[in-house]
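Listing S7. Sequence submitted for prediction.
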Amino acid sequence: LQKEYARQMLEWLRWFRETAPIANSKTFTTSVLKSEILYRGLVPKPNFLIKELQVEGSNHVGGKHFEYAGSIKNLSNQPTLLSEPLTINFRAQGKQHFSVDAEYLFSDEACQETYHITCSDLIAPPSQLGDASHLLVSLGQGDVDGHADISVVGDSIEGSIHVYHQDTALLISQLSNLAGGPEIQDLVNRQLATINSFNLRIDLSGTINAPEIRGETELGDTFDKAMVSAFAEKLQAERAVKQQAMLSRFNDELRKVKNEMAAKTESLSIAIGMQRSTIQNRQAKLPDLNRNSIR
């Protein structure tokens, strides 16, 4: 995902650099028809300078059509003689929402290019991340905002890109059995259902045609926390099932003991009753000693 965003941003940047009137030795040349004499105390100035120019037009980048408008300041055929940099402020109009603020500071050695690029209200189509054999994550359609700060000197590039996803859905479509299988997948998806936004940071270095891309995202921490929570919930559920099973077995054993005690108590009561009846019968058969003594 980080590489795709970096690719798109660099595609815009390459187009902009090729389109913008960057004052370099190949673009701005002058024919020297006569010798120039500089008097002491005079500051050399370019013989061609546009302080400000309003521009507008349309173009295609990445198969998408857009219209743009903006301004160019300090456009000269001898930019190294200027104390102020060449600046370009560019705004896309229509369905594409982005802007570019570029600054070019020239010296005899090189040109220092700086770009601040802002994109907003872009629609990110559904996509998938990962590998179906291990972990496959589906990313739903969402809104995307982003900005980039990039510096270019010659072919060298350095900078960072920040991307903000909003109103999007994360869902694990496939999770291998080694990672927990369908049961953990369902538990993790419950955790992910509460997340509808995330951020990406992409660092660029190397050259503009062969950049080195390093990405950072909070999705890793999000999935780690969701997995830990899912396994904890599973262990708690398994523990609860085991406790319930133990309690059920204990209640069964206790019920058996109570039934056995009740049966033994009933048998004992019957035996005692029989003994009492026998004693009473024997007592009834004994002679009445008191009556015989009176006679």
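Caption to Listing S7: primary sequence and predicted structure tokens for the chain studied. Residues 77 and 98 are 29 Å apart (CA to CA). Residues 23-34 have pLDDT under 50 and may be disordered.
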